[in-house]
Write a structure and sequence with these properties.
By secondary structure, the protein is an alpha/beta fold. The protein folds into three domains: about 90 residues, Translation factors (Elongation Factor Tu (Ef-tu), domain 3, Beta Barrel), CATH 2.40.30; about 120 residues, Nucleotide-binding domain of ferredoxin-NADP reductase (FNR) module (Rossmann fold), CATH 3.40.50.80; about 50 residues, no CATH class. The chain is built from ten helices and 16 strands. The strands form three sheets. A seven-stranded antiparallel sheet has the order 6-1-2-5-4-3-7. Helix 5 packs parallel to helix 6. It is globular and about 55 Å long. The relative contact order is 0.14.
Length: about 300
């Protein structure tokens, strides 16, 4: 079991967790993810690691409460425990010295873009970050992104923060600017990543996207995370999660991600109507963790 050491709200339905997972904290790289399960009968969900502190043995997860499990997770607080946490999974981001690198984060995708921006800057790149959301209240981690880049561009659909418009508009302006763009990384909603890919395609700018499709086991065995890349089947959990944006079949991916939409809505509705079963299971986890802590303390004394 894995203890939550810190939990705080950073946006509407968005929460940042620090979780004690020393082995993962030491090994994780930017772009990698974990698969977690909250209790014995819970579903497995993938979450990209937003950062780590090897000295403290913690990893950071930023969670947007959309489905049943993410909303259940966002009810947890410091001191609670997560039943299972497996990782780091997937291949780390390929970090090189490209020159001028643009990192685009849409919505909660900013949390995933953050460690990539940090790594690109550390590698000697000039990093321009573009962060977008529908409205100001949905923007997250702006101070962190500002520190991880040389310039930060904020875009909102309604103009309530930064400049009004889409991230693709600002990307086109940077491409047309005096400093050539050598590399683009985009992380966020599928339509946004697809739009970024179309902008950079004609300029032949290397563009990478991070995909988070349906996953179950995280080892490639189940085949649930199949994506079409360059006309060939790839598995996001072991071949990705990052791929060449110009080769990804976004239409196919959107169709696959919608396969279980009705079941997901039904599961969420049932949970909202009767949350008791899952909450009891989570309380049982915390009780077991407390007993294990007492037993370890007793053995040590």
């Amino acid at each position: 079991m894995f203890s939550i050491t810190d939990a705080r709200v950073i946006g509407p339905e968005v929460k940042r967790f620090e979780i004690h997972a020393p082995r993962i904290a030491v090994k994780q790289g930017p772009g990698q993810f974990v698969i977690l399960r909250l209790h014995e009968h819970g579903e497995r969900i993938p979450l990209t690691i937003a950062g780590s502190d090897p000295a403290r043995g913690t990893i950071t997860l930023v969670v947007q409460g959309i489905g049943k499990t993410t909303r259940l997770l966002n009810q947890m607080e410091a001191g609670d425990v997560i039943r299972d946490l497996v990782g780091p999974l997937g291949k780390p981001s390929e970090i090189e010295r490209y020159g001028h690198a643009v990192v685009v984060g849409g919505g909660v995708g900013t949390a995933i873009a953050l460690p990539v921006a940090r790594a690109l800057k550390k590698a000697g790149n000039r990093v321009s970050a573009i962060v977008g959301a529908r409205t100001a209240g949905l923007l997250i981690l702006l101070d962190e992104m500002r520190a991880a880049s040389h310039s930060l561009h904020i875009m909102t659909d309604d103009g309530s923060a930064g400049d009004q418009g889409f991230v693709t508009g600002r990307l086109e302006e940077l491409i047309a600017g005096p400093e050539p763009v050598d590399h683009v990384m985009a992380i966020g909603p599928l339509p946004m990543m697809a739009a970024v890919a179309e902008v950079t395609r004609s300029y032949e700018i290397k563009t990478i996207v991070s995909l988070n499709p349906i996953m179950v086991d995280g080892t490639g065995m189940c085949g649930g995370c199949r994506v079409l890349v360059g006309g060939e089947t790839r598995f996001a959990c072991v071949d990705g999660p990052e791929f060449d944006a110009h080769a990804v079949d976004f239409r196919n991916l959107a169709q696959r991600n919608s396969v279980y939409r009705d079941q997901e809505r039904r599961s969420l509705s049932e949970f909202e109507a009767h949350p008791e079963s899952d909450l009891i299971q989570m309380h049982h986890n915390c009780r077991l963790a407390h007993l294990a802590h007492l037993a370890a303390h007793h053995a040590a004394s």
